[in-house]
Every structure is written in structure tokens, then in C-alpha cells.
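[Q] Does anyone have a clean C-alpha cell version of this?
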Amino acid sequence: MDIHELIRYRKSVRSWENRDVEPAMVERIVESARYAPSAKNGQEWHVIAVTDAGKRKKLGNDIAGQPFVSQAPVILAVCGDTTVGDMRCGQPRMPVDIGTLTDHLMLVAAHEGLGTCWIGAFDGGEAATLLDVPNGWAVAALLPLGYPDDASPITKSRRSLDDLLSWETY
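[A] Here you go.
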């Protein structure tokens, strides 16, 4: 499918087939996503692929409080360097860069027939401790990753283009 179809196809998945994701598939997804743009091309990110059942259970059930997260065969913990500071426009670099990388991870995963769900509701400190994330870095997103048990497309409710786009001024 072309990029426009892929963007419309991708959905948040909360239910998984009981099927492993091969390490080579995870590597292929991260390999492609690492070409995401970042401020100053700093690429100050790191992805931890969590496959251990005990760690997934702890991340999903205890740290995120969302059991469906732990049921995915892989959880990608997307980490960013908190010390990189702000862009010239005044926005912090790390969340912008992590957001771009995470979007690329989700789109590549969808292209490979896998589902994800961007998780931001979790205790970042507990996740960092569990995953031995070094000081100065943070777990900024969790992405459960696996084969969706329902691959049917969804209709997404979106604001109209007229609501989102203006020319020359707001």
C-alpha cells in the first residue's frame, strides 16, 4: 500500500494474536525508523525491545496499569536523552524527536503487518529502573508490538481539513 493508505490503515491495537514477533522483524522496524528526522540530526534516542514475559508483565500491569500492554509479545521502550535542551524555537528537543521516532516505528510496524499502541500513561521512573536506563535518559513512550488479533481497518474520526489548515495566518 502507498504511504497515504498506510497512514489511514494504522490503528492503535490493544489485542494480540498468540504469536511471537521474530527478532529480525523488530530489528528491521527499528532499522527503518532510525532514519526519522531529529533536531540537529542528533538521534538522541534508544529503543529497548522487551520480550521477557516477567518484564512485560511488570511494564504493562504494574507500571502502565494497562494489562493489554503486557500481552503483546514485544514492548518497545522508546528512550530519549533528557539533557539535550531546547530547539531555537523554544520547544524541548527530546519529546519532539521521540515523537517523530515513535511515529516512524508505528508506521513501519503497520507496513510489516504488526500492530502498536502508543502508551504515554505509565510511571517513567519505574520503567527506567526496571530497564536500567542510565541517568540523563528517560523512557518517553512504550509501544506494545505484535500481530493484531483483528486486522480489519477502522474508521477514524478526524477533524476536517478546513479545521486544521489555514493559509498565511491562523
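[Q] Thanks! Anything notable?
[A] Residues 125 and 138 are 8 Å apart (CA to CA).
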